[in-house]
Amino acid sequence: MDCLRGQTPLQLFPSSQSAKPRRVTPQDKLRALREELQHLFLERSALIDGALAALLAAQHVLIVGPPGTAKSMLADELCRRISGASYFQWLLTKFTTPEELFGAVSLKALEADDYRRVTDHKLPESHIAFLDEVFKASSSILNAILTLINERLFHNGRQVVPVPLLTLFGASNELPEDDELLALYDRFLLRFVVGYIDEDFRFLRMLQAKEPEQRTLLSLDELRQMQAEVRDIAVPDLVLRTLADIRRELRKKNIVASDRRYRQSLSLLQALAYLNGRVTVAESDLFFLEHVLWKDPGEHAEVHNVIQGLLHGYEDEVQELLFQTRELRDYAERQWDTKEQHARAIIEAHTKVRAILGKIEEISHKVGDNGRSLEKVALIRTEIQTVQQHLQHLLAKP
User: What CA–CA distance (Å, rounded) separates 380 from 357?
Assistant: First the structure.
């Protein structure tokens, strides 16, 4: 099934008689597509970025949440934006048969003793797929899906056939508990837990939303071109070292992800950098790994805190030192009963501010050695030095 039949592409840059319009690049279309999806799916910014990055990196996405949270709608909408892409959607149950996903057995092939399936319009021929309640199917079906999404191969009779699958979206109301399902669960690089719209004003916007009249479209060739460009995005050594730091800190908290998951996360980071118009992965892209490195939803907050602490913990530390400096300044400037008490307070505040500046210098050297930005540290150091100079001026007064 071609999911783009009957759709009209969106003209991003209207023609002008006075000036030749700039050529619309695939990146222009990608940005427009991203904005349109964010207007269509409210409170789903991270999921939208994750879905687009998954397409660019050829990875898979698991969405956990109750019915009616637009899980299948997002996958369908994405496919409708890729001209020529085939979309397959199915609800899995314990009664689902292989024929429903992979096609009926070919009677003609059986005559030649070849147990082969007719895969037209089925999962093995889809570019984007959505499987609802993905963990509910039988073991034989799940094993076939595992090979299909991991190796992009389908064993069809005597042949092993490559499949065109770009991204598989899986959805479930709950996480798998059986050990036999964990292998499939681990193949979903990105994992999102979604709920119903929280804010009233966004809920009202959702009620008033209309079906878009036009859609920005990408061709399959344009998508493949961007996938090739994503693979050329540079990953600096600093990002790799920070990724190793994240892994080490998470293991201390018994949050362990497979080596394969860390390796695949590099392609995701490249895709995120590309999505944001950069040619190099930035440390800030690592924040998105909070949707990659947890196994149980209860670990999500801990993963976020570890990444936050490693990337910006030093900023929080210098910010706290700035607050202490301001308190010391206020302490020195308060009204005292005698000049002697005031003088002792100024000396005490000045001594402690000098010690704080020493800590700032230690943090600066450590952060600088790790290659991280010192901009915020420099600004805070300047303010603390100004306080120190003010206290020195107070000390010099007769």
Answer: 10
Q: At what angle do helices 45-57 and 220-231 cross, to 10 degrees?
A: 90
Q: Specify the CATH number of the domain 1-231.
A: 3.40.50.300
pLDDT in tens, 195-224: 888 888 888 888 887 777 778 899 999 999
- Residues near 261 by Cβ (< 8 Å), separated by ≥ 6? 186, 189, 292, 293
How far is it, in rounded angstroms, from Cα 199 to Cα 299?
A: 25
Query: Model's pTM, two decimal places?
Result: 0.77
At CA 205, angle to CA 78 and CA 209, rounded to 5? 50
Do 286 and 292 touch, CB atoms closer than 8 A?
Answer: no
Q: Which of 192, 256, 162, 179 is nearest to 49 (CA)?
A: 192
| φ, ψ (nearest 5 deg) of residue 96 | -60, 135
Q: Which residues contact 167 (CB under 8 A, 6 or more apart)?
A: 51, 54, 55, 58, 59, 60, 61, 128, 129
Element (H, E) at 62: strand 61-64
**In whole angstroms, what is the distance from residue 58 CA to residue 277 CA?**
19
CB 391 within 8 A of CB 332: yes
Nearest CA to 153 among 140, 164, 163, 167?
163
Phi-psi region of 138 (alpha: psi -120 to 50; beta: other; left: phi over 0): beta
d(C-alpha 107, C-alpha 110), whole Å:
5
Closest CA to 261 of 243, 276, 239, 241: 243
DSSP character at residue 23:
P
Quick check: 116 and 155 in contact, CB under 8 A?
no
Question: What single-letter DSSP state applies at residue 18?
Answer: S
C-beta of residue 129 within 8 angstroms of C-beta of residue 123: yes
- pLDDT digits over 48-100, tens only? 999 999 999 999 999 998 888 888 888 888 888 898 889 999 999 989 999 99
- Most distant CA pair in the chain, distance: 109
Where do the domains of the chain lie?
Answer: 1-231, 233-295, 312-396
In order, the DSSP letters of 261-324 are HHHHHHHHHHHHHHHTT-SB--GGGGGGGGGTS-SSGGGHHHHHHHHHHHHHHHHHHHHHHHHH
